[in-house]
Design goal:
single chain; 782 residues; 32 helices; 0% strand; elongated
Length: 782
């Protein structure tokens, strides 16, 4: 029982135990079939390492159908790489460039899909094994057959040997967050119906705290893996995008005004909240129960659309009443600024309700698309038929993901180039040094290479220590066992099991020790050579570690820490520019006079690409060891700001999407006010982005323009006073657009601090604060 309790603490869900157990059964089995029954050492070698690669070096998540599809793709792709590696092993002038190209392609392709990212080591192992063991074209068939033998057995093992339950933590946590948000919304609507009774207020506060905890748990799980948890399937892509939408919903609810005061829009807003809660509950049902709950989600989305339209109509109908109340306040002594502020403030609950409905509808629609994809048959999935239109093809998604990281500051690009260079240099060293076991040189390079030189050096030391320990243990076993084959066959599955479970439950070095002991036993079964083979293994691994360390020092040695600043900068500036252009597009539709601006599709694409690079840089930053120049709280603040800017831009476009041209009147002055506000917002974030790179002084949060509301209300005065249906609707949307811009301006308060800290760190690395140096230079010249 103590051992079981220890495993539960160190191996949550027995994931490592399951993998190691399968490998301990399958790998010796296929090796015995190839070595003893078939009697082909080459086939046996590739079957043995194929078992390692497909069962221990890759682990796929999701439903069983998706896992088996990913495993099959891994086996077939690995077979192709075995062919390519064998053909390239003939000459060094072919092997070196081929290794670089193949390694870069395998590593970089992980950026478009988490299954590809998790399978990269397994794929590289298939190629490295083939390219470092010289063989003629006639050897291709035996090698590929050995790989396919192990691959086929791995597919059967995943399906039949202790099948893992569906592992989609993001899906479950997203469903939980949706339910708790629904509970919070129902509690807030209950406060209105109860007249803000103390018990209702207490229930609302409790529900809000629980929802905040759920969002934080979702955020933590989302960034826990070193790559974005999404595959090429439509459902996987949509689920990953849901995380940002759920986090955005949390920020909207936190900003929603909630005071125990009845207003003209209390009841319509409460109805929108109840309809939104229904959508969130049905979305959670779909995420947890599958397609059977989809019908309820469709009805809930229709109900939300109806309540949102009713709330917007109610706001438009009561617009003159709001304005009359503000005018009455002015007669009581309030100035124009106070009157405008009161008027705009009276529309705040309806604006937040509209923002809430937009966010919840986006969540519900995304979940509905997940269902639409899951209900497709396997044949439709293979042929790409009946794909929901809003999802887009996997090819387009892959191209966009690759294009987003085909940029000089991408951390993923850096890591891919670094890994490819290390393996290519390893092949070159092997050719010129004449080492006997070239495969272990490259395996040593692959095992320890990380995103910065410091972490690579630490892993190199642990790898050498683990390898040495494995040689000692395996050497002792081989020494005492000698050439007694039955004993070696008994020890083989034990060594495989330990090598599979040790990295997750003990340490990386322990895993290296287990793997080394396994190889010693394996090679002594194929060609008995005693424990001396282990000494060569240490030398080869040490060479590989040195190669990786040298490459890590030469290629971006600071890793993700330096790239994170630039990625933050690009995400901020591109997202703010997207919002600015969305405002331009929206307000250009407010009347029949002005020419409609182009929809900001290019700006949206650039902002999305910048966010992908930022996501990757932040994950690598979290995984790196050593002192971090930016706290996780500060980094999260800036990342959230970029996400909110993008989603706010989406909300602005959604706000104006149902407004047709032809509303009478000229609203040029109102357009001018909104565009000016958007330009100032975009300029502030552009300056902050430059400061993140040390290019200019960090900006201070902009002062509140207290006359902006007065000017906008004055520009829309005729529409407000007369209450013309189309004119009033345009006026409400223009005021709501101003509120969206104001939401972005409020982000400046949180972003300014982290920007100042990064600017100070950058300045200290260059020898001082540029502001002080500039002031000193001006003083000297004076």
């Amino acid at each position: 029982m103590k051992l079981l309790d220890w495993l539960r603490r160190h191996d949550h869900g027995f994931i490592a135990l399951r993998r190691a157990g399968r490998a301990a059964v399958v790998m010796p089995g296929v090796f015995a079939l190839a070595e003893v029954v078939i009697g082909n050492p080459i086939l046996a070698t590739f079957a043995a390492f194929g078992g390692f690669a497909t069962l221990l070096f890759a682990d796929f998540n999701g439903p069983m159908r998706e896992r088996l599809a990913s495993q099959t793709a891994l086996v077939l792709t690995g077979a192709v790489l075995v062919c390519v590696g064998t053909l390239g092993s003939q000459h060094s002038w072919i092997a070196v460039p081929m290794t670089f190209v193949v390694a870069f392609g395998v590593l970089f392709s992980g950026v478009i899909s988490s299954p590809l990212a998790s399978a990269s080591n397994a794929l590289l192992l298939s190629f490295v094994l083939a390219v470092t063991l010289p063989g003629s074209p006639s050897a291709v068939s035996d090698r590929v057959l050995g790989w396919l033998l192990a691959g086929g057995a791995s597919i059967l093992a995943i399906a039949l040997l202790w099948p893992a339950p569906t592992k989609e933590p993001v899906r479950g946590l997203t469903a939980t967050a949706c339910r708790l948000f629904a509970r919070r919304l129902r509690a807030e609507a209950g406060c209105v119906s109860s007249g803000y009774h103390p018990r209702s207020l207490e229930a609302r506060q409790t529900a809000a705290a629980e929802a905040d905890e759920a969002v934080e748990a979702l955020r933590t799980a989302f960034f826990r893996t070193p790559y974005r948890p999404t595959g090429l399937t439509a459902s996987a892509r949509i689920l990953a995008g849901l995380v940002d939408k759920v986090i955005w919903l949390g920020s909207i609810l936190d900003r929603m005004p909630f005071e125990p005061e009845h207003g003209l829009t209390d009841e319509p807003v409460a109805r929108v909240k109840l309809a939104a809660a229904e959508v969130l509950e049905k979305a959670a049902d779909v995420l947890q129960k599958g397609a059977g709950a989809a019908a309820g989600l469709h009805a809930a989305l229709d109900h939300l659309h109806h309540e949102r339209a009713g709330m917007e109509q109610s706001t438009t109908d009561t617009l003159p009443h709001h304005h009359s109340a503000a005018v009455a306040a002015a007669r009581g002594g309030a100035g124009p600024g106070e009157r405008a502020a009161d008027f705009v403030g009276s529309l705040m609950p309806s604006f937040r309700a509209q923002e809430l409905a937009t966010s919840v509808r986006a969540i519900g629609t995304s979940v509905d698309l997940v269902v639409a994809n899951l209900t497709r048959t396997t044949w439709q999935l293979v042929l790409g038929r009946n794909r929901p239109e809003a999802v887009g093809s996997s090819i387009v998604f892959a191209r966009q993901g690759a294009a987003a990281h085909a940029e000089v500051h991408s951390v993923w690009l850096h890591n891919s180039l670094r890994g490819a260079a290390a393996l290519a240099v390893g092949v070159l060293v092997v050719e010129f040094s004449g080492v006997q076991h070239a495969f272990w040189v490259l395996l040593g390079s692959l095992a320890v290479l990380r995103s910065n030189a410091l972490t690579t050096g630490q892993n190199a030391l642990r790898g050498i220590i683990g390898t040495t320990a494995g040689i000692i243990i395996g050497g002792v076993l081989v020494y005492f066992v000698g050439t007694q084959m039955p004993a070696l066959w008994v020890l083989l599955p034990v060594a495989v099991f330990f090598g599979g479970i040790a990295p997750a439950t003990i340490s990386f070095a322990a895993g290296q020790a287990g793997f080394t002991a396994t190889v010693l036993i394996l090679y002594n079964i194929i060609a008995p050579a005693g424990w001396q083979i282990g000494i060569v293994r240490v030398e080869d691994v040490a060479i590989g570690c040195v190669v990786s360390l040298a490459v890590g020092v030469l290629f971006w040695p600071r890793g993700a820490a330096r790239a994170l600043d630039r990625c933050l900068s690009e995400a901020l500036s591109d997202s703010a520019r997207y919002l600015d252009k969305a405002v331009d597009y929206g307000v250009s539709r407010c009347d029949s006079v002005h020419v409609v601006a182009a929809e900001p599709t290019d700006e949206a694409r650039r902002a999305t690409a910048a966010s992908r690079r930022l996501d990757d840089a932040f994950r690598n930053y979290l995984a790196e060891r050593g002192t971090k120049h930016l706290s996780l709280a500060d980094a999260t603040t800036v990342i959230n700001a970029a996400v909110v800017l993008q989603l706010t831009a989406d909300a602005v476009l959604d706000l104006w999407s149902t407004v047709g041209r032809g509303a009478s009147g000229d609203r040029a002055q109102a357009r001018h006010e909104l565009r000016g506000a958007g330009d100032r917002m975009s300029a502030w974030f552009a300056q902050a982005a430059e400061a993140l790179l040390g290019g200019q002084d960090p900006p201070q949060p902009a002062a509140v323009d207290r006359s902006a509301g007065t000017r906008l209300v004055a520009a829309l005065g005729r529409d407000i006073d007369e209450g013309r249906e189309r004119g009033a609707a345009a006026a409400v949307r223009m005021i709501w657009t101003a509120e969206h811009i104001d939401t972005a301006r409020h982000l400046e308060q949180g972003v300014a601090g982290p920007v100042e800290k990064i600017f100070t760190v950058r300045s200290s690395h260059r020898g001082g604060d540029p502001r002080r140096l500039k002031a000193a230079a001006q003083s000297a010249s004076a």
